[in-house]
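tokens incoming
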């Protein structure tokens, strides 16, 4: 069911984050017109404001994928049910979430069709038709698609029955090639999320209990939200030869023998938009990093008389034309005060506002207002073509820095007692870096006690200067440092 905290605050203000973070989030999504509830339980309608962010996300990531040799394709929404049963771990992992079609054209189907929860099975079934020799490898395919997972508890963008994503699938001749691709995709996701979404992430490997069903190993990116919970922002999986063996994906090796291909899969979804909201939003509304903002600059003309209106709008048009590399909107609406327009655009997270009135024109200047800091900056009209792009770059960098600093201020490293850990997780939460003995039973008990899980076993650059020597819970020798947190 949808979160019942979606009731609106008063007509002007969002529920403060400190009062109810969940209510704040739902109100912001609805009132900023990013998405709305669908008549279908657990599904959402992505509105133009939200879909515009997704479109910019698609373009940027697609370019990054293509630069490494990946090509786009499309595979069917429906998957024969028997395909899902060919890989045991995979079917067990997805069985609770699968939607199945049993009737089509008014007749009971000979074989039920699964509405894709993910596409490994049907894609590797096709790869098996296309690959005969090592010369056919590697196969590097991505698709932009929708998937369906029958979630019980849903929330706009974060967890819905149907969502949009990209899923990449590759086939390689060796384990090492597959592993290199898996790590390369993880790095692409990190660069995108930090450079474009201004969302700092921690990368690392998932524990066995948290890895993708059917994978050899899973890597993930974890971002901290403002309530100190983690959000898994993307994943990259080395699938080994599990699916290749299930679908007879074999090839003739260079030496004349036969071997099974090594596969990878990797994906990121519209969940990232939820991450953007919870990373950057404030009590006024959304704050959008300029690179993924459908509107980067809004011009608000200020006038009283009709004569002033014509003059100010003409100047606004000239300013917009002088900024060809910037996504500009001119607010031409009559019958609204400038203050009402400011509130409207601040709620929707437009990175930069340009205020322009007759007095400004007399001085040959305007006022630029940053959404992230709300700083006002008088600026000569003559320098706008350079001042606006420069300021947008500053906003992008500053939003990343603020989010990274907040994460580090709410991260705990070094020796910590289990009692203290439980107190933190029962309270404000944190990213806690602590030792783990490697025992899945110990990991499961911590989850039961605190609802915190191992988000990742962090990559070297994120590890503590001194590796923990004992397990957070049981005190036995630690085999790895783990990042523990509650998560969405």
């Amino acid at each position: 069911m949808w979160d019942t905290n979606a009731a609106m605050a008063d007509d002007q203000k969002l529920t403060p984050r400190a009062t109810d973070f969940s209510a704040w989030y739902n109100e912001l999504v609805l009132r900023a017109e990013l998405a709305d509830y669908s008549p279908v339980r657990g599904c959402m309608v992505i509105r133009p404001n939200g879909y515009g962010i997704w479109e910019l996300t698609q373009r940027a990531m697609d370019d990054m994928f293509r630069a490494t040799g990946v090509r786009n394709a499309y595979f069917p929404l429906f998957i024969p049910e028997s395909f899902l049963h060919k890989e045991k771990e995979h079917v067990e992992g997805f069985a609770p979430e699968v939607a199945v079609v049993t009737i089509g054209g008014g007749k009971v189907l000979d074989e039920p069709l699964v509405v894709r929860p993910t596409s490994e099975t049907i894609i590797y079934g096709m790869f098996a038709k296309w690959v005969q020799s090592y010369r056919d490898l590697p196969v590097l395919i991505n698709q932009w698609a929708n998937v369906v997972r029958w979630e019980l508890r849903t929330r706009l963008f974060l967890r819905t029955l149907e969502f949009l994503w990209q899923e990449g699938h590759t086939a390689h001749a060796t384990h090492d090639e597959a592993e290199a691709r898996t790590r390369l995709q993880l790095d692409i996701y990190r660069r995108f999320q930090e450079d474009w979404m201004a969302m700092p992430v921690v990368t690392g490997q998932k524990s066995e209990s948290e890895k993708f069903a059917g994978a050899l190993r899973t890597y993930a990116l974890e971002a901290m939200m403002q309530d100190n919970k983690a959000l898994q922002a993307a994943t990259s999986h080395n699938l080994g030869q599990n699916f290749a063996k299930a679908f007879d994906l074999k090839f003739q090796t260079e030496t004349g023998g036969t071997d099974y291909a090594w596969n990878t899969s990797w994906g990121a979804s519209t969940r990232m938009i939820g991450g953007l909201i919870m990373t950057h939003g404030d009590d006024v509304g959304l704050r959008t990093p300029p690179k993924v903002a459908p509107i980067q600059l809004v011009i608000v003309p200020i006038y009283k008389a009709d004569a002033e209106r014509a003059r100010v709008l003409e100047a606004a048009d000239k300013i917009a034309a002088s900024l060809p590399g910037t996504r500009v909107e001119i607010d031409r609406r009559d019958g609204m005060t400038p203050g009402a327009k400011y509130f409207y655009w601040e709620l929707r997270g437009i990175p930069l506002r340009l205020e322009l009135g007759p007095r400004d024109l007399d001085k040959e200047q305007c006022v630029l207002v940053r959404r992230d800091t709300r700083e006002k900056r008088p600026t000569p009209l003559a320098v706008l073509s350079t001042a606006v792009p420069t300021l947008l770059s500053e906003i992008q960098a500053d939003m990343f820095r603020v989010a990274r600093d907040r994460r580090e201020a709410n991260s705990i490293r070094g020796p910590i007692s289990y009692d203290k850990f439980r107190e933190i997780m029962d309270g404000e939460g944190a990213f806690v870096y602590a030792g783990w003995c490697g025992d899945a039973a110990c990991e499961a008990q911590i989850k039961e006690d605190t609802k915190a899980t191992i988000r990742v076993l962090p990559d070297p650059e994120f590890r503590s200067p001194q590796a923990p020597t004992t397990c957070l819970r049981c005190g036995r020798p630690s085999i790895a440092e783990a990042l523990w947190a509650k998560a969405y």
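note: The longest strand covers residues 162-172.
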